TrEMBL record:
Keywords, alphabetical: Membrane, Transmembrane, Transmembrane helix
Species of provenance: Rubus argutus (Southern blackberry)
Residues annotated as transmembrane: 308-327, 339-360, 380-399
One term of GO molecular function: glucosyltransferase activity
InterPro entries for this protein: FKS1-like_dom1
UniProt-listed Pfam families: FKS1_dom1
Domain 1,3-beta-glucan synthase component FKS1-like: 157-272
Name of the molecule in the record: 1,3-beta-glucan synthase component FKS1-like domain-containing protein
SMART domains attached to this UniProt entry: FKS1_dom1
Length: 440
């Protein structure tokens, strides 16, 4: 009889009930007690996932705490890395539900339904850590996921530990979930520490087996709270978003910081709290914008749609040149060599518009340039120099065409040769832009 079916007590007395025994709280599945009479525990896939988590085996036990026989891999991680107990309970159910559901969908069903299939765990791990793998590849860092690809309980357990560690980090990250690359950075270093614990490495500073920062809520206090407080201060400094976009960092700016290798040099691990990443002081000290700065300007209308404007300007110029001849049909005007050569001026205009774009980039994104992003400022300057150089080159080659034609009094072979030289130069510019767009 459950509590909802309990009859109301009467004044005259009646049956007495023993107070129900307090149980460990759970959300959906009572993983802590596989012998409980609960509908979810009747599925062998659920029992298989829960049993896999209990395979602690001969792992080194966390120091300074009393290890209990009912602890599993989630408790092991929680004690070693200082995760909160409620987070450990939540992510245990989270992981068991994922693995059990994945194994239930296997076709054909496995022969042993109450044993966790290694393929199920492998596919789940690859999907869960796909973003982390991409992040490592982008930054040129070696992943700290070390799987030896051999069958055995140790490999399954190690794979479970990586998956469980990521879920525990994610579960306790709170608002840092809006900066997924920051979570990748945290997981990258915690997976490295996990490898050191599993491989029983010796800490060179203490001469004892390596031990990560642990203790009651150690992960929350030492990792999450400092980064969260930095984001909170940035939001408060924004004056509800009314300050200029260049004066404060939002979630995207924080996340962009972890897309660069300088986060390894500045933040380090364990986290260097004196890093300028945590500073909300003036721009000269703190980490500023890293990806894009929105400047309120009319010129954004051109800068944001520069390719469209360039296309319209060049088409207008070409149309005016053809229409100026006064022919009935455009192709009649194109039969004239003079018109054909005048149309080459669109490349000069294109170069000039590229110069304008480079100037607007520098004028709107100069706030990104700091001591740490000096290369970005150099890139802006070089972009303007290259655009100006191409404009000058096209102007010189175009002037040489008309100089040769005026000297010969007609479109001679030498004048036509200079037209071909101009076209080869234009082809070089076009191939350069096509390669750039292809790389993007």
């Amino acid at each position: 009889m459950n509590l909802r079916q309990r009859p109301q007590a009467t004044r005259g007395g009646g049956p007495t009930y023993a107070r129900p025994e307090m149980q460990e709280p759970f959300n959906i599945i009572p993983i802590h007690n596989l012998l409980a009479d609960h509908p979810s525990l009747r599925y062998p896939e659920v029992r298989a996932a829960a049993a896999a988590l209990r395979a602690v085996g001969d792992l080194r036990k966390p120091p300074f705490v009393q290890w209990r026989n009912d602890y599993d891999l989630m408790n092991w991680l929680g004690l070693f890395f200082g995760f909160q107990d409620d987070n450990v309970r939540n992510q245990r159910e989270h992981l068991v539900l994922h693995l059990a559901n994945s194994q239930m969908r296997l076709q054909p069903p496995p022969n042993l339904a109450d044993v966790l299939e290694s393929g199920v765990l492998r596919r789940f791990r690859r999907k869960l850590l796909e973003n982390y793998k991409s992040w490592c590849a982008y930054l040129g860092r070696r992943s700290n996921i070390i799987i030896h690809r051999r069958r055995g309980g140790d490999d399954v357990r190690r794979e479970l530990l990586y998956v469980a560690l990521y879920l525990l980090v994610w579960g306790e990250s709170g608002n840092l979930r809006f900066v997924p690359e920051c979570i990748c950075y945290i997981f990258h270093h915690m997976a490295m520490e996990l490898n050191q614990v599993l491989d029983e490495d010796i800490d060179p500073e203490t001469g004892r087996p390596f031990l990560p920062v642990s203790g009651d809520r150690a992960f929350l206090r030492s990792v999450i709270v400092p980064i969260y407080n930095t984001i909170k201060e940035e939001v408060e400094d924004s004056r509800n978003g009314t300050r200029p976009h260049s004066a404060w960092r939002n979630y995207d700016d924080i996340n962009e910081y972890f897309w660069s290798r300088r986060c390894f040099k500045s933040l380090k691990w364990p986290i260097n709290y004196s890093s300028n990443f945590f500073s909300t002081a003036p721009k000269e000290i703190r980490v500023g914008k890293t990806g894009f700065v929105e400047q309120r300007s009319f010129w954004n209308l051109f800068r944001s749609f520069d390719k469209l404007w360039v296309l319209l300007f060049l088409f207008l110029q070409a149309a005016l040149i053809v229409a100026w001849e006064g022919k009935e049909y455009p192709w009649q005007a194109l039969e004239s060599r003079d018109v054909q050569v005048r149309l080459l001026t669109v490349f000069i205009t294109w170069g000039g518009l590229r110069v304008l774009q480079a100037v607007l980039d520098a004028g709107t994104q100069y706030s990104l340039v700091t001591k740490e992003t000096l290369s970005l400022g150099i890139r802006m300057v070089l972009k303007g120099i290259v655009a100006t150089t191409w404009t000058i080159i096209f102007s010189v080659f175009y002037a040489r065409i008309w100089a040769q034609k005026n000297s010969d009094g007609r479109w001679s072979g030498e004048a036509n040769k200079r037209i071909v030289d101009f076209l080869w130069t234009a082809l070089v510019l076009l191939s350069q832009n096509c390669w750039h767009w292809f790389c993007l």
